[in-house]
DNA sequence: GCGACAG
DNA sequence: ATCTTGTCGC
């Protein structure tokens, strides 16, 4: 039952996606908007969130989208939400958000409705923020659509606007002394697009941190370091671990156990969070119309009637017409 | 054929 | 993202 991912989108679709990115980009706030962000100890910060999407192996459509909320500074999981989703849009570098973000927005909206007191004060996103081909990566996209402060955390350097993972870059990495050390990533225009951060003392590969929304780069880097027990910030790491686990549990019994000769060494899992009384459908209905899926469906061959003038609804009453 | 290629 | 085993180090 492994469905195949759609191929590369038509040029027209990419064109619409670019227009949408340009539009939403005007709504990005790249400075601190919250009091805790300016505090040296981040006092006032109590909840940090992380999101991730993991895939079913051999299937580029079936995936598990997860949102977790951790206490700060303890970094203990307070909330976990995993759900299976079907990703219709293909992955295209520079357009990651159009594939993954609708489901992440849904997860945030579910939390907003059911457990508003657990709403995270900042979200760590797997991927870039303004360090992007057009200055609007998935962390910006999710930030604008949810109106939450977001931090983009990528594991590899996106070589864009003159940035290169060349010998000089590697040398700068080598010179990072201890956890928390970083150096700026300057784009061709002289703008600092992000920071390469050594997330802890014994990490060779840095993290690439960039602004997503409603937070300065300085605060984003400092908080990222403050959330790293290991190389990957704990919120994203937990979202990743739990979404993979969810797929294993969901697909494990019926899957092909013979193919997995059991070589696990994982000890235990806490299991103390609202993991859904599960009356929920596999895919929740879209509460926030992020127009992403509609753009995709409207444009591709499968959809006979293209309709312009769709409306984009962003969280507070920020509206925009395509 | 070769380099890029967030996830 | 996922495909994949062992291995070196604390």
The number of helices is: 8
Beta fraction of the residues? 15-25%
CATH architecture identity: 2-Layer Sandwich
The name of the CATH superfamily reads: archaeoglobus fulgidus dsm 4304 superfamily
Mean pLDDT: 82
How would you classify the helix and strand content by structural class? alpha+beta
Rg over CA atoms, rounded to whole Å, is 20 Å
What's the CATH first level?
Alpha Beta
How do the helices and strands follow one another from N- to C-terminus?
HHEEEHEHEHEEEHHHEE
CATH topology term: archaeoglobus fulgidus dsm 4304 fold
Number of strands: 10
Shape: globular
Subunit structure: Monomer. Interacts with PABPC1; the interaction is RNA-dependent and stimulates ENDOV activity.
Keywords: Cytoplasm, DNA-binding, Endonuclease, Hydrolase, Magnesium, Metal-binding, Nuclease, Nucleus, RNA-binding
Family: Belongs to the endonuclease V family.
GO molecular function: DNA binding; metal ion binding; RNA endonuclease activity producing 5'-phosphomonoesters, hydrolytic mechanism; single-stranded RNA binding
Kindly describe this structure.
The chain has 322 residues and is an alpha+beta fold. The protein has a single domain (11-254, 268-283), classed as 2-Layer Sandwich (archaeoglobus fulgidus dsm 4304 fold), CATH 3.30.2170. It has 8 helices and 10 strands. The chain has helices spanning 11-25, 35-38, 96-114, 138-146, 167-174, 217-226, 234-252, 292-299, and strands at residues 47-55, 62-71, 77-86, 122-126, 150-154, 182-186, 192-197, 207-213, 311-313, 319-321. Strands 3-2-1-4-5-8-7-6 form an 8-stranded mixed β-sheet, with helices on both faces. It has a two-stranded antiparallel sheet with strand order 9-10. Helix 1 runs antiparallel to helix 8 (292-299) and helix 3 (96-114) packs parallel to helix 4. The chain binds 2 DNA strands through residues 52-58, 60, 63, 91, 93-94, 96, 99-100, 126-128, 131-132, 137-138, 152, 154-160, 202, 208, 263.
